[in-house]
Amino acid sequence: MKNDYWDISAAMFRTGILGYGGGPSTIPLIRYEAVSRYEWVSDDEFGEVLAIANTLPGPIATKLAAYLGYHRKGTLGALVAVLAHILPTCIAIIALFSAISFFQSSSIVSGMISAVVPVVCVMLGIMAYEFGEKAFKGLGVLAALLFLAIAYVLLQVLQVHPAIVIMLFLLYGAIHFRLVGKLLNRKGEQA
To answer: Is the pTM here over 0.70, yes or no?
Structure first.
C-alpha cells in the first residue's frame, strides 16, 4: 500500500541531504523528486510554483518542500515535508561543524568545498536550459528572446531586485492569459 507521508519524507530527506550548497543547488533535486520520480506535479506547475516561491521571503527549498507536502497531504503533509527536509541537514551541520572548524586550514577540505561549485553550476545550467527550451516552444522564439532581453536589462543593467522582476513577469502572465481567455471566449461565442 502506498504511503504518501513516507514518500514525502523520503523525497524531502534526499533533497535535504544531497542539496549541498543551499537552495539553488536543491531546486533541481526537488524538481526531480516532484516531477520525475513521484509525478506529484507537472513540469509546468513546478515552474510556476518555483516562480512564486522565489517572490516570497525565506529559503526557497523549504518553501518548495512545504508546497509539495501541502499539495499532497494538506497542512500535516507540509509539516512533514519541511521537517524531513531540514532536520537531517540541521543534525549534519551540528555534527560536522566541529570537524570543519578543526580541519578548516586543510587544503584537502578547501579543495573539496571548491569542487562543489562547478557541479552546482552544471545542475542550474541544465535546469535553466530545460526551462528556456519550454519558453521557446511555448512562447515562440521572438517572444522568448524579447523576455530574455527584458529580464537581462532589468536584472543586470538596471539592477532591479529579482523578486520584483519575477513579480512583473507574473503580473504580465496573469494579464496576458486573462486577455487570451477573453479572446477565446469571444471567438467561441461567435462560432
So the answer is: no
Pair 113, 149 in one domain: no
83-116 exposure pattern, b = at least 16 Cβ within 10 A, e = fewer: bbbbebbeeeeeeeeeeeeeeeeeeeeeeeeeee
Q: Count up the domains in the chain and report the number.
A: 2
Query: What range does the domain containing 9 cover?
Result: 4-134
Helix locations, 56-106, DSSP H: 60-103
113 in the same domain as 52: yes
Judged on CB neighbours under 10 Å (0-12, 13-18, 19+), 126 is exposed
- For residue 167, give the C-alpha cell: 513579480
Phi, psi of 22 (to 5 degrees): 100, -175
Q: How many CB atoms lie within 10 A of CB 147?
A: 14
The tens digit of pLDDT for each residue in 31-43 reads 999 999 999 999 9
**Spatial separation of the C-alpha atoms in residues 150 and 144, rounded to whole Å:** 10
Is residue 105 helix, strand or coil? Answer: coil
* Grid cell locating 33: 523528486
